[in-house]
Automatic annotation (TrEMBL):
Start and end residues of each Tyr recombinase domain: 37-131
Keywords: DNA recombination
Protein name: Tyrosine recombinase XerD-like
PANTHER family found in the cross-reference section: PHAGE INTEGRASE-RELATED, TYROSINE RECOMBINASE XERD
Membrane-crossing segments per the record: none
Record Pfam families: Phage_integrase
Methyltransferase found in the keyword field: no
Gene transcribed to yield this protein: LOC106820176
Length: 131
């Protein structure tokens, strides 16, 4: 088959189908890949139970509560949360500067509730935990 015939087959899908002997034109089309199913969501009660689970009297419990509140308020990935530095948290403006996938930096707003728990953690627990 010369170059002109090959070009005709490429330009004419029906000619390609005939050339390979397929009677069903859709047989050569690949099926689309199916995405992953969406994760299950928590009910409001389950979220409340999760947020209230840490014992905030204990310094580690207060740290955990602040982390859970921040996760809930911002939608951060756990990997983003655990690599977050204090310098990336701006409580006055209510935003976090987060390095996400592909080393892309983004500003993430946080709610007042999460900011209040971070302030409480910084005042009450962090000094005890970094000794």
């Amino acid at each position: 088959m010369d170059l002109a015939e090959q070009a005709q087959y490429i330009a004419d899908p029906v000619a390609v189908i005939i050339a390979v002997g397929e009677k069903e034109p859709t047989a050569l089309i690949e099926s689309p890949t199916l995405g992953r199913p969406l994760p299950e969501t928590l009910s409001e009660r389950q979220v409340d139970n999760l947020l209230e689970a840490p014992d905030v009297i204990d310094p580690l419990g207060l740290r955990d509560r602040a982390m859970l509140e921040l996760l809930y308020a911002t939608g951060l990935r756990v990997s983003e949360l655990v690599t977050l530095e204090i310098s990336q948290v701006n409580l006055q403006q209510g935003v976090l500067r987060v390095m996400g996938k592909g080393n892309k930096e983004r500003l993430v707003p946080m709610g007042d509730e999460a900011a209040d728990w971070i302030l409480r953690y910084q005042a009450e627990s962090r000094p005890l935990l970094i000794q």
